Recover the amino acids of this structure.
């Protein structure tokens, strides 16, 4: 076979099956092209994509401004070591600092890595400024923070941890939105409380404002870092630039990835100076972190999200989408903020509906047996919501 020879969908699936580790239960679709809210398979069939790379393609597929920025930067300089200065990295850092209210950024390549950076930062700050015993990190049950050993330890779901013990010592999990349990868990030994403003992976559960406020108070009382994992909620997804802006609670550290690069891999840990300045040369690094290509893509993506009206669009189209989903037959509950939405069925039929939807040219994500998750591009329109609802009714 010649590398450039076109292959059928079946051939590509067989190739993947043989040579790629089976860490994903892939669905039977092979995508070769994307544009806006749509992707296309090997046969040219069109799919309306309401998963968007799991909240990555915030501006849709191949957004022109991001594509242009990548092409321009790729011709100039793709990568140098972080031992030297380049322009796109501080430019992106300034942009993110301006929109978040944080002070400084550390760049990496994924959400899990961003959380690792945040955990290390909080641990070092506690050790340097307080005591060697101040090492505990409190996170929530049913949370999701990524797949590295540190991140699965933070993740409050046994299914992601069970075959990979021993985990990292010093983590405690409390039921999400349970203020009493949170109070009982946080103490002078706590160096950080790590929370998602809306739990995404486990089925789109927004935080209660009182819970996040209690976390803020406890962190202030015990001089611990309040870390918000905004890997999924960040950059317009919830109808505000950041998830925390719904709750009037400001964190000390924010982690980002997913939408940040407009489809290009990049992660980021943002922190206020009190925390950020604890990191010294040699404390933390990522070879690829914040390279000029990734940063150029992210500058273009974040600027377009900020200036293109897409945050407002996520709020408006999200409200409309939730309304329309509530009218679907068999729906028990619709949850979410902006374009981070879950529809829970009364019956265990989410997987069947998602599979039928795929056959009918609609990409939605089943979580467990009862929940459909929607994290579409922020550029989604009401007309496309209507099209999706028509397909879902058929399914
Ligand atoms: N944190 C949250 C809230 C996420 O939703 C995810 C991924 O779904 C991660 C962290 C991990 O991100 P990544 O897969 O880029 O490591």
């Amino acid at each position: 076979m010649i590398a450039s020879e076109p292959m059928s969908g079946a051939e590509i699936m067989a190739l993947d099956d043989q040579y790629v580790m089976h860490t994903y239960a892939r669905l039977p679709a092979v995508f070769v092209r994307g544009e806006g809210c749509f992707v296309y398979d090997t046969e040219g069939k069109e799919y309306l994509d309401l998963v968007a790379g799991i909240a990555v393609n915030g501006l849709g597929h191949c957004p022109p401004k991001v594509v242009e920025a990548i092409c321009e930067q790729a011709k100039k300089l793709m990568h140098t070591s972080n031992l030297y200065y380049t322009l796109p990295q501080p430019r992106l850092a300034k942009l993110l600092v301006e929109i978040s209210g944080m002070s400084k950024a550390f760049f990496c390549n994924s959400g899990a890595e961003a959380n690792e950076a945040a955990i290390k930062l909080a641990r070092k700050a506690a050790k340097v400024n307080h005591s060697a015993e101040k090492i505990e990190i409190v996170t929530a049950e049913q949370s999701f923070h990524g797949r590295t050993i540190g991140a699965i330890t933070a993740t409050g779901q046994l299914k992601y941890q069970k075959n990979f013990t021993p985990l990292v010592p010093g983590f405690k999990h409390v039921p999400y939105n349970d203020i009493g349990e949170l109070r009982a868990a946080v103490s002078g030994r706590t160096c950080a409380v790590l929370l998602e403003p809306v739990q995404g992976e486990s089925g789109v559960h927004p935080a209660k404002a009182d819970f996040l406020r209690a976390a803020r108070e406890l962190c202030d009382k015990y001089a611990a870092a309040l870390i918000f994992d905004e890997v999924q909620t960040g950059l317009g997804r919830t109808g505000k630039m950041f998830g925390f802006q719904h709750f009037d609670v400001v964190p000390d550290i924010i982690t980002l990835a997913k939408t940040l690069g407009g489809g290009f891999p990049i992660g980021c840990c943002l922190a206020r100076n009190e925390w950020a300045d604890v990191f010294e040369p040699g404390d933390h690094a990522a070879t690829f972190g914040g390279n000029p290509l990734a940063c150029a893509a992210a500058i273009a993506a974040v600027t377009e999200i900020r200036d293109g009206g897409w945050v407002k669009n996520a709020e408006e189209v999200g409200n409309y989408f939730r309304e329309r989903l509530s009218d679907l037959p068999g729906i028990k509950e619709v949850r979410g903020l902006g374009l981070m939405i879950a529809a829970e069925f009364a019956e265990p039929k989410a997987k069947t509906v998602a599979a039928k939807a795929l056959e009918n040219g609609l990409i939605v994500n089943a979580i467990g047996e009862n929940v459909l998750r929607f994290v579409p591009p922020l550029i989604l329109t009401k007309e496309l919501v209507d099209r999706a609802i028509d397909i879902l009714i058929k399914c």
Summary: Residues 54, 110-112, 115, 144-146, 196, 200-201, 229, 231-232, 257 surround pyridoxal-5'-phosphate (CB under 6 Å).
